Fold these 2 entries.
Entry 1:
Amino acid sequence: MSRHRNVRSMVDEYDDDEDVYGHSVEEDYSISPTDASQWIYDRARGQNSMSAFLANNEDIVEEEDEEAENEKFAKSRRDSENFQMPSLNDFDQAKLMSCMEEVRNVIGDEVVSDRVIVELSMKFNFEIAKVLDEILNECSSSKESPPVDRQTKSIVPPPLPPTVKITSVPVPVTVTTNTTNTVPAAKLFAQQKSPISSGRNTPEPQSLLDANSTPSEETVKTYKVTKEQAQRDAKQIFQTERGDGKAHFQMICIGHVDAGKSTLMGHLLVDMGNVSQKTMHKYEQESKKIGKQSFMYAWVLDETGEERARGITMDVGSSRIVTKSKIITLLDAPGHKDFIPNMISGATQADVALLVIDATRGEFESGFESGGQTREHAILVRSLGVNQLGVVINKLDTVNWSEDRFNEIVGKLKTFLKQAGYKESDVTYIPCSGLTGENLTKPSTEPQLVNWYKGPYLLEVIDNFKIPERAINRPFRMSVSDLFKGTGSGVCVNGRIDTGILCVNDKVLVGPNREQAQVKNISIDEIPQNNAFSGDQVSVMLIGMDQNNVNVGHLVYDPQFPVPTTTKFQARVLVFNVKVPITMGFPVILHYQSLVEPATITKLTAQIHKGTGEVLKKKPRYLENNSCALLEIETTKPICIEKYGDFKELGRFMLRVGGVTIAAGVVTKIR
Amino acid sequence: MKLVYRNIDKNNDGVVVLVAEESEDMWHAYNLISEGDQVKSTTIRKVQNESATGSSTSSRIRTTLKILVESIHFDIQACALRLKGKNIEENQYVKMGAYHTLDLELNRKFELFKTEWDTISLERIELACDPSQNADVAAVIMQEGLAQVCLITASMTLMRSKIEMSIPKKRKGFVQQHEKGVVKFYEAVMQGILRHVNFDVVKCVIIASPGFVKDQFFEYINQQAFKNDIKILLEHKSKFILIHSSSGFKHSLREVLQDPAIISRISETKALGEVKALEQFYTTLQCEPSKAFYGFNHVQKAADALAIETLLISDHLFRAPDVALRKQYISLVDRVRNAGGNVRLFSSIHVSGEQLTQLTGVAAVLRFPMPELEDDDECIDNSDSD
């Protein structure tokens, strides 16, 4: 019988899943009386205002500072822990105790260690007034000297330019400096808040805005980094490591589909001796076998079976060459319309571009007229911040190296490129042939060409590109363009360092989730490095994070200066040729660095004048071709994005719809 | 949906008895029922009984309850509709005024009482009960590393599964990793299709992607079907259609539905009509901006001038909890109809409907240009101003 009852009650219990009434939450979460008296505000105990309670409750701050290094503080703490009370008779013991208590009452805890008080008490024969006098004198003198001393010692590592000085003040150190003082902690907390929350070079208003936009999380949370990471001088490391070496830069090869980009790059690599003869022979045989011998050079960069079978590049291929004065990473972009997203992700990594034009009759025209990629690529690359362009007039051998044809094409391109915003002095035109290799790595020997062409050959042009200024002194940022499983436990991310410096063992944050990770190793072109600098194409092994939390397009950044994370931002855009006008609610695809993310235009704030930027119309109903506007964009998932004002390299983006680029813009405000 | 009984008097007060037959009907029911309506349906209620000795037993009892709806919750993924409200009819087990949540079930009739049946609701019943409207299409929108398996029914686009994978890009000398990643991704998408697509119901399966992903994927499916003898795929091979899309995101579905190959296959469905109508609106806005307007204020003024040729309106507006607001939109629709205009009700869970919802939810193509509206800055909807 009893067994039955048991079963029944069990069933009842199981069944009884209604809400529990008459039962308060507190009963579930108990708190011990001591904890309660320390942490919970109790009006009954005569603490008549909440703020007074908070101000008194200094411990709240103290806890966070534990890890910070402060030798003096640490020492004093150790002192009191290990300190043994002197053996005294009962009477003296009692005197000492009362004396210590008095002293503590006056000056508060934590300021001086037990040892000091005891020693002084003994010295002054338990006269409270004298002991206090001594302690306070000592305190005020120490208050002046140590912080100053620390400032000079730690914050000024070898000469730094003034801007960096501000940014590289390590947050943890500031905090501990403050706690040694006797100023009420609550006040201190308010003071130190600004360096933490702003977290960047931008001054106050921005930081406030940030703090508002991410209310709960990062305003209070600081990410700890090692002292070395916080204080190193990027410029100096750069000078010592790279000062005398060859400069690096990235070059992207763009142009209409079948203009011969891959073949040109492939042939260049072969001529530079980067591809072994054996491999080349293999490619030649294999391509002959499937009847596409003209693709043999393209196969150097088009490695996947799919690409070779179809004879088109699908993803950006990269490879590296070394010239007289520079080391260049060649990026071979796909020309096909459907792969423009890949091309954009490649172009965001490039410093200069090589525009390849097919000189064959009819081909140039079809690539250049509307619907061809020549225009779109050139405009895209320009809007992504590339301003030096080499224009390769390829396949000139098919028109017998005709000068007229060359001039005709150059003439048409000149007007177009000028409209697109390229300076004439930054554009060079080179006639050549990717397949025969004429005029690539050495001056041409082709009599028909030599007759009229006296200019430089391709490699010379590449060698003469000016290297853009690198933002080495800015906080570290890198966008992930590729991601794969590395050997061992870590996650390997590929990408280009946009700003700053990255060293092995650095702590970094990844993506909008602010996932923390550590750099296990860095390699450039399969060669392990200790440091990498802005502009480098690196692959980084990260440990201590989940691979699922990092994705292509995410940013990797410095924990001291986190990137704002948002789903909504304001931008200034230039609208290209669009088939349908842009209205609010327009679904677009946002291309930002390597990130491709669906987004919606939520608001058209104003239509502005292209040149002057003055507002032409507030809240326009729609945006038409070639207009300039301020608008708001909302993404479905949170993304990391920087304002153009803060990071020129990271403030640009593209909007595309239905396979057409409809607008390019810069981020003006992050919500 | 099946209409069992209908009794609506000339004051538009009355009752309708309906039976939901498939998941899509829940969506219709969601659009029909608004707060303040009364719903009667069979449900399960847990009842506690106390015996004379004080011991209590609880048991589940199926009973019929009539509630005054206070809040409505619709789960799009599960197509479940839950109505919460107070009991208003005497019942053996449940006291008057006690709260109950009705879970509408498939194939069980429910009675819906409204004090005022408007044209939109009546139309909705008609639409829901029209069997010819049924045209289920499955669509897989994909690009390398991202795929979405969607079901498109007459008034819903349901995303059944989303496959997101990071595929290593090609790197010098490490092509295998890329190719391995691609195969893994295709496998996942294929499993998604097998799990979520009911081949007996759908008319066709659209595979849309930029580039060659769709061809590669289709080839992969065929290979796998042969290799592992997946009968269902082999049998329905002819149902697959490959279409080009510009990206693998959900809103590319709009361009997919415009593809001539699709139009010939699935003929005139609601989804298609909506896409076309929205497209027409945008073209008009491009060519003759003074003949296309959006935002309630603008459209209202155009309606006053009897200028509206086609009115595009998203059905989420009729679900507004505010009765006055709802009436406003209903009267707009009625007026446009009376003036001989065309009204297109967009389902807010289709891609085109989503876009229209973002675009204030109401737009109109006019018969004649009204340039005076264009200068009227006041009219631009300020509803979204933060």
Note: The radius of gyration of chain B is 25 Å.
Entry 2:
Amino acid sequence: MAKKSLKARKSELSDTKRQLELLSTGVFETGTLPLFKEKLKQHQLSALQPHPLEVLQINMGYMCNQVCAHCHVDAGPDRKEYITKITMNACIKVMQSQAIQTVDLTGGAPEMHPDFRWFVEQIRSQTQVKEIIVRSNLTIILANKKYHDLPLFFAKHQVHVVSSLPFYKRNKTDRQRGSGVFDSSIKALEMLNTVGYGKPGTGLLLDLVYNPSGAFLPGDQAALEQDYKNALNTDFGLVFNQLFALTNLPISRFLDYLIASENYEEYMTNLVNAFNPTAAKNVMCTTTLSVSWDGYLYDCDFNQMLGLKVASKRNHISEFDAQVLQNREIQVSQHCYGCTAGSGSSCQGAIA
Amino acid sequence: MKKEYYNPEDLNKFGEITKWNKELGERFFEYYNKVFEEGALTAREKSLIALAVAHVVQCPYCIDAYTKDGLQRGIENEEMMEAVHVGAAIKSGAVLVHGVQMMNRYDQLSM
């Protein structure tokens, strides 16, 4: 596990332009592998266009108590970027004017934001948003006494908790996320179960996120979910609702890992060979907008991390214009193969 | 001409065998895919069997493919190594059981 972010290490990959350059040269420049745009054409698919907006995903900031080896955000304790109340209010305005079903709060660790609870309360009291998702790394709940009551806070506001747990065994989880992360995660899951999360009839949803701990694609989501459920229930008496199997996208720290381990070309070949046109039709960027900590708009969280703002003159939440944004073309590069491989991948797991 | 008999990149070209005999190639892949579907055995169990056999037949392509397949299915390294030992035990057992033939022949020829 890394100890510092790429940015703190002054890695060349902390420069998003360098990442985009890597994703467009080499095997993609020689024609060994087709560009994502070309692949869409090969399958008679048009350029990606947005459907009506359903999900507003808001990145609360890049600060995190963990420094995970695969993190596409390059988050960590050394990151200081935070969303301001002005931007949060601008987001609420958009939630009030648009038929947004879901607000998806992510980070870093969104709970570390000093106004995180205020923001959740405002969304609940001032908007008609049906679902608030928090992407929790679980360990934050135990990281400091001030976070211990988060499960109760989540339950009070009917927050849908989506938590990362890379595997149901200690060794793989700790290798990816750091020593002790598995035990803390299990304890946090117990706390969430105690207040009713993941239990039938409570309405409190607790979903887990699996992502491969290495240079390979996720297996069948339903089979993995069954394995997780059996193992977590047998070993710890834990329950949860669904498992989302996510593909690691070749950007940021995972890209750094792929290159350092000499797995980059093989991984990209796997992604391209596993291209699934059905998944390409259902990619999440068609119904989602991602807002960065400084208020800019992106087609997805991955584009945000690559600095690829929406291809629109109105690219900031403060000047949100649904009609103008609706007519944009979604920005793509070769990292998009991560969302179209196999059963596909999105923040809600498989899509095909 | 390349000096290596095995090239990892050739694994990605496996499907190209259909180019020189479409019917047999396609029938093979249809059969192959059917074999690995969930059945009386789970796809996970089949993956472990395939890994063990891959070692016994010493196919580097198959070892690469089924190690990755196992990782994707959440199969752990201890399970993979146990499967390889099963293959090794059968392979070595197959050698050693011929020792009985050797003993029989020895006894037959000896006074």
Note: Residues 49 and 83 of chain B are 7 Å apart (CA to CA).
